[in-house]
Design brief:
CATH superfamily of the largest domain: Response regulator
Radius of gyration: 26 Å
Distance between the termini: 67 Å
Strand content: 15-25%
Number of strands: 12
CATH class of the largest domain: Alpha Beta
Number of domains: 3
CATH architecture of the largest domain: 3-Layer(aba) Sandwich
């Protein structure tokens, strides 16, 4: 195996001290002359020098890595936010180590432990349901972290998330403006705050418009009974003796399953029923009618997540909470013209 090129090798060929080489290759080239810095960089490239990151981390106590725990690697949100985080991290000379919890608490906890053991400089986390205990334990540790997309209002942490309450209200307002008086909301049966905020926004907006938001219209889906609960919820909405109903699905996964079942029932969108999805999905392109949906500001969210984490890593007193506004894409599933 070919021997790894060292700082001493570069110093010998450049006829300079090893310290001078170290200054230049570690971003302190102002400590040597411009000509010397240029000569050292040229020789380093010629010798195909690669820095020894482990040795550097022992010296600086930094690994220049960020740990990212996402909820499910197959979500469109996940792929978009991961790209945004990696792009912003690269600008700050950080690499990103990624793990997917698959919405499972034990796996979420294991991933945090693995990343901390890898000596990442900080963590960006999308917490799973019932993970408050794990977040509180992490606060007691020395590992800087922020939460993204999901957070716990009673736990003092930095987070970057969507204003879910406002978005849900805007969807109801939109449907009410189109003349809908019967608007259903289908959400997961979960304790996660961001999902509860979506339901709260729906209920408050319906009350403001003096429209019904009782159990006939406000539906929850258990993950372990996903298909059965979805069918029951849609059957009940469609059975209501009322004008053409509308359904707001609280996530893209709910929307995809719900629209497929509506197609099975022979319900035409938007002629027989109107539909809005809280999130975007590539699967929407497979349906006959483009689905009206929300669009999360993924690039802005990823950029702010990295910048906030760096601020937290550099100043332990930073505690920043940011709520971003959702975009809105009109498809045609609500009868838009």
């Amino acid at each position: 195996m070919k021997r790894k090129v060292s700082l001493k090798d570069i110093a010998t060929e450049a006829n300079v001290s090893a310290a001078a080489v170290s200054y230049v290759l570690n971003g302190q080239e102002h400590r040597v002359s411009p000509d010397m810095a240029h000569r050292i960089k040229t020789i380093a490239r010629k010798l195909n020098y690669r820095p020894h990151h482990i040795a550097r981390s022992l010296k600086t106590r930094r690994t220049n890595t960020i740990g990212l725990v996402v909820a499910n690697i197959s979500y469109r949100f996940t792929t978009g936010i991961t790209r945004a985080i990696e792009a912003e991290a690269k600008k700050h000379n950080y690499s990103v180590l990624i793990g997917s919890s698959d919405e499972e608490l034990p796996k979420f906890n294991d991933l945090i432990n693995v990343l901390v053991d890898r000596d990442v400089d900080g963590l960006i986390l999308l917490p799973v349901d019932q993970s408050e205990k794990e977040i509180k334990e992490l606060i007691k540790s020395d590992t800087p972290f922020i939460l993204m997309d999901r957070y716990f209002p009673d736990i003092p942490t930095s987070y970057i998330a969507l204003d879910n309450y406002r978005a849900a209200q805007e969807y109801v307002d939109y449907l009410a403006a189109l003349g809908h008086s019967n608007v259903a909301f289908i959400n997961y049966d979960a304790s996660m705050y961001h999902l509860r905020e979506r339901t709260r926004g729906y209920v408050d907006a319906m009350k403001r418009h003096k429209l019904p938001a009782n159990a006939k219209w406000n539906k929850t889906i258990r993950r372990e009974m996903f298909d059965d609960d979805m069918r029951k919820a849609i059957d009940q909405v469609c059975a209501q003796p009322s004008e053409k109903p509308a359904i707001i699905f609280a996530s893209d996964t709910l929307a995809i399953k719900g629209i497929r079942y509506l197609n099975e029932l022979g319900k035409r969108i938007p002629e027989d029923i109107s539909v809005i999805s809280f999130d975007e999905s590539e699967a929407f392109e497979l349906f006959n009618c483009p689905v009206t949906h929300g669009r999360q500001p993924l690039e802005e969210m990823g950029r702010m997540a990295v910048q906030t984490l760096i601020d937290v890593m550099e100043n332990e007193n930073v505690n920043r909470q940011v709520l971003l506004r959702s975009g809105f894409v009109k498809g045609g599933s609500c009868g838009e013209r």
